[in-house]
TrEMBL record:
Gene name of this polypeptide: alr
One Pfam family recorded for the sequence: Ala_racemase_N
Cofactor(s) needed for function: pyridoxal 5'-phosphate
NCBIfam families: alr (TIGR00492)
Enzyme Commission (EC) number: 5.1.1.1
Record lineage: Bacteria, Bacillati, Actinomycetota, Actinomycetes, Kitasatosporales
PANTHER family registered for this protein in UniProt: ALANINE RACEMASE, ALANINE RACEMASE, CATABOLIC-RELATED
Pathway: Amino-acid biosynthesis; D-alanine biosynthesis; D-alanine from L-alanine: step 1/1
Protein task: Catalyzes the interconversion of L-alanine and D-alanine. May also act on other amino acids.
Protein name in the entry: Alanine racemase
Matches recorded under InterPro entries: Ala_racemase (IPR000821), Ala_racemase/Decarboxylase_C (IPR009006), Ala_racemase_C (IPR011079), Ala_racemase_N (IPR001608), Ala_racemase_pyridoxalP-BS (IPR020622), PLP-binding_barrel (IPR029066)
Active-site residues (renumbered): 33, 268
Amino acid sequence: MRARAEVDLAAVRDNVRALRARAGNAQLMAVVKSDAYGHGMVPCARAAVQAGATWLGTALPEEALALRAAGIGPGQARVLCWVWTPGGPWREAVEADVDVSVSALWALEEAAAAARAAGRTARVHLKADTGLGRAGCQPADWPELVAAARAAEAEGTVKVTGLWSHFACADEPGHPSIAAQLASFREAVEHAERAGIDPEVRHHANSPALLTLPESHFDLVRSGVSVYGISPVPQIAGPAEFGLRPAMTLSASLSLVKKVPGGHGVSYGHHYTTPGETTLALVPVGYADGVPRHASGTGPVLVAGKWRTVAGRVAMDQFVVDLGGDTAGAGERAVLFGPGDAGEPTAEDWARAAGTIAYEIVTRIGRRVPRVYLGELPADREARP
Ligand SMILES: *Cc1c(COP(=O)(O)O)cnc(C)c1O
């Protein structure tokens, strides 16, 4: 195989168990949007449910519908999706028992219309903007949205199953916006409950809040990156300190190893020049595979027992490492990142090298890289199409 991303489903299950233990009495939603942050949505969703996640979260309704189409039924997991646009598949979501997020009147109206057409009740989570300034209803507009939701409940088209919001700075514990958002959320919940809303779940916490802020747990926590074993607060603690293990290992087979003389320019732009006679190894993955071009000259790779650094630019399909005179054979494995326990770099190391966050490193691993699942349970193999 040219390249592969191994995904350890046993790690996903163990991470979910560790997160549930931290969540106390709150239920756990495994966020599996964007193909489970690049790890593969359906296998990871199944693993999370096996380990006790009772909710699955997606951004797009299409992602939520794909979970249902894969056979993850409402008896196994509730599914919430939150990125809607007018004309979206509201009716399909209602018919598939998918909970939908509503931040504005137009969305409530589309959910209610879909429910009327389907002859069912839409399950709606009203989202408050408690300070993130992204999705969610502003405090000034909240009473109107709540009143409209109560009217739709009276009509029987809508049931408000959730009240929720999302943090701006949960990855910076102590940031003043955190307390302000919690206070705003409590007010929004109190207002809705006084108006007669009786939600099943109130939820505000993402991975960093789950791990660092117990008072944000409410009835449900939404855990994304931590399910895949990545620390959401790497400046405070690595995954092991939270009982987590990175699930993805990205590796490639060397496609060429050759001797070159000193003073030889390497890759586009010649941003690296060999300091003396040396061996170069060609790693056949590039930015088309999600290896960040921003890690040109900085990205770490385990080759022939040592960390090497990307020499020169990352190209679309390949990059070069200087083995400094060491030898390696074509076909030998180069490990870009993994859990880090066998001497390889981690996605966090790549994030630092590329000036980004580990979330982006794993999520952007391209479709051209096959996912290979380890730690599948027999039930997964049977369920696989
Ligand atoms: C992506 C997302 C999450 C998960 O965030 P993590 O930091 O990965 O745990 C939770 N809630 C919302 C609304 C999201 O968009």
